[in-house]
């Protein structure tokens, strides 16, 4: 075992079909022949340095050329049509090879599924290939200052002007704004319609002919000192009507496809990163001579068991997919979102406690180490992507069939 990595991922107790086993062998052989040494052991940071970013770009190009990008998309749209089981196998093999399994981010995981499900064939031909190639890089413009969990209350307007929409309004929590050239957003195109109607889902270019398109990003600096997301302001921003996915005023159902993709996520393989992080903490504890302290071991045992719960939850989903079921019995990703976000936040607190006084010291330019950054970053993980409270309501009402909470006195609900 190499320092800080722990044992190799445990084999999955799933009865894989011969075809799935052949696919595993294919991926493993390809990685053995093609994974570059410069990618071995690389953990992709939120904002990679220029040299690492260039290396990641080369690796992304290699994956794209070999057909390992946007793999869950149907073949007719440039993907490989991989099943959930095959995607899980692919992720496992990349983890086994210790190289990053890169994707096209929000374009691949959120925008692409919405386009495939709701766009016209002309729109699919126009918007899907640039996502696969990396030409189009997307950020998300959904939440607003007064429309977070209650997304349907959004007020950003889209007014038809000839063959364009003119967009005005404000969004917030726009992740990855600093590296994108497209934003997918929801705008209200019919203010007289019911709350969940009159909303349109539109793909908006950040610039047009190398000129600004009326979009201003105002970075929001987090406790870490970095500004990974921003406020976003639209001022007479223009997007062709042909960029509206699903038709005018029909954006809510398109958005539900995107949100379903966001929350269903990485349940089958997310435990791999958490297990690497766990062994990193074990190594830190060993260095400090604390590994035999009973109280320390109890906390480490708790963390390990939580990662195993996440692993077996993922295996349950894989088993359902292998049996031809949808996995909807797991709460459509809600239970997993609750589990991993609350676990990761608690693990950071445990790590800081175990590191003791060292955890209180930062570099001269507010340089945070791994665990300091984790403590601050994970405070938001139970909020974004649907708060833990909202996720519990989803599980209670949609999975367990419990009645809705009574409306507060005086509420218009």
Automatic annotation (TrEMBL):
This is Alkylation response protein AidB-like acyl-CoA dehydrogenase. Residues 250-400 form the Acyl-CoA dehydrogenase/oxidase C-terminal domain. InterPro entries: Acyl-CoA_Oxase/DH_mid-dom, Acyl-CoA_Oxase/DH_mid-dom_sf, AcylCo_DH-like_C, AcylCo_DH/oxidase_C, AcylCoA_DH/ox_N, AcylCoA_DH/ox_N_sf, AcylCoA_DH/oxidase_NM_dom_sf, Mycobact_Acyl-CoA_DH. The lineage of its organism: Bacteria, Bacillati, Actinomycetota, Actinomycetes, Pseudonocardiales. Residues 18-135 form the Acyl-CoA dehydrogenase/oxidase N-terminal domain. One of its GO terms (cellular component) is plasma membrane. Keywords: FAD, Flavoprotein, Oxidoreductase. Its cofactor is FAD.
